[in-house]
């Protein structure tokens, strides 16, 4: 992904985020995820059935990076098994934290491949992933 | 006046609009602290040798400077702390924890800084007191009328910032103190955002306690002041016990405490910090507190005049007569605006500015905050306004 495309993908997901909304359904796991160092604050709602992520919704107030990252994450994780999801998340963290990672797995999330250059924004990009890992953990403890 | 030559940080390629968070230090402050560390680095109150005596003179000399700066009656009314936060905690724990009973009420507002809320929340827990909030008017100001409406027979304390760090509204403290004292209510002033910006006269205001920090007034970090009327400080229990605050103690746990102010300054104090604070006061006096106030208001009016011409900017508190301005760029998250400006070396703050419960009142949770000080310039404001006027540029460059 070149610079312009990365910017376009992020702005597009920020202006028109996918899977935005709140869910009251009790089958969904709810977690809040926020950064104490900045002001992003996101609620995540996760629905897992038969080990497969059926749905994720999110709501909250967050910057462009966080919002776009959440939108992309939801699109990428819905439909994956929990194992596939964890592999995706691990890959994403590897990219952000400058370790070797598999480009082919990350699709749109590659928009954040250069974010490590802005140290104060890496926590914005990983915020939804921190949240969804908590939600998955919560699900696994309950099942 | 050109302040550039006085401040090392003003010589950098930087526009600094986060003076509500902390301020830059002039060379004179840095030098005064270096001088202590390089030339007479001994402890205070040990006076058996020459350089220690010099430390005492310098340290206690600053107490006199602070006394004059805020027009306290006596030097014993000035206690050095680590900052406004510690001062407010000492007031709540050392004095009011003993004084307040279950059902007593403390009046604050939603726009207080966390350090003037959480110490009271703690008393709600330990003493079963009640926290009540003074309603803010439409422009988020505290009015005397609303204070009167909030007072009940159980109100024992009114604790307010003189100016809030979020929307910059100026509170009518003198009037509030008068009506509070007529009803035997104590007034605690969080002076963190007022003492640095205009002349403070604690006797004229007649406040009971006040807290402020050195680093928000060109002084070093880690030093601040607790002011209290002498008769009240006499009843304020130390939070810290140890060296320097006791007269003597025996093996049966009987401790004889020193007089004020030493009783409330246990342990080796922040000597360099206090000396730096003294140099900061000298500097502010040289500029003149009235000049500082007028310059900030002039800059603020200039900023509002320019920003209000930009359609996509929503100013939260245009009426506030202080150097603080909160705003939002339509459709852009405050943090993204701050990150964009940072790319041009302009430092502003995004967030809720430690007043997390205000969101109920202003409807928006987060804002961009510009907080000015006397060393800012119209040219700096022009640079800010030019960048903010181009929304497409912000959207393009914020990530």
Structure description:
The complex is a heterodimer of chains A (about 140) and B (about 400). Chain A is α+β, with helices and mostly antiparallel strands and about 140 residues long. Chain A has one domain (about 5-140): Sufe protein. Chain: A, CATH 3.90.1010.10. In chain A, about 50% of the residues lie in helices and about 15% in strands. Chain A has helices spanning about 5-15, 65-75, 80-95, 105, 120-140; strands spanning about 30-35, 40-50, 50-60. A 3-stranded antiparallel beta sheet of chain A has the order 1-2-3, with helices on one face. In chain A, helix 2 (about 65-75) packs parallel to helix 5 (about 120-140). Chain B has about 400 residues and is α/β, with parallel strands linked by helices. Chain B has 2 domains: about 30-285, Type I PLP-dependent aspartate aminotransferase-like (Major domain) (Aspartate Aminotransferase, domain 2); about 290-395, Aspartate Aminotransferase, domain 1 (Alpha-Beta Complex), CATH 3.90.1150. Chain B is built from 14 helices and 15 strands. A 7-stranded mixed beta sheet of chain B has the order 2-8-7-6-5-3-4, sandwiched between helices. A 4-stranded antiparallel beta sheet of chain B has the order 11-12-15-14, with helices on one face. Chain B has a two-stranded parallel sheet with strand order 1-13. In chain B, helix 4 links the parallel strand 3 (about 105-110) and strand 4. In chain B, helix 10 (about 290-305) runs parallel beside helix 13. Chain B is globular. The model of chain B has no long low-confidence stretch (mean pLDDT about 95). Classes of the chains: A alpha+beta (about 140), B alpha/beta (about 400).
SSE layout and pairing:
The complex is a heterodimer of chains A (143) and B (399).
Chain A: H1 3-15, E1 29-34, E2 41-49, E3 52-61, H2 64-77, H3 82-96, H4 103-106, H5 119-142
Antiparallel strand pairs in A: 1-2, 2-3
Chain B: E1 15-16, H1 27-39, H2 50-70, E2 78-81, H3 84-99, E3 105-108, H4 118-126, E4 130-133, H5 144-150, E5 155-161, H6 173-181, E6 186-190, H7 202-205, E7 209-213, E8 224-228, H8 230-233, E9 246-249, E10 255-257, H9 271-287, H10 289-307, E11 313-315, E12 324-329, H11 334-342, E13 346-347, E14 349-351, H12 359-362, E15 367-371, H13 378-388, H14 391-397
Parallel strand pairs in B: 1-13, 3-4, 3-5, 5-6, 6-7
Antiparallel strand pairs in B: 2-8, 7-8, 9-10, 11-12, 12-15, 14-15
Helix pairs in contact in B: 1-9, 2-9, 3-4, 10-13
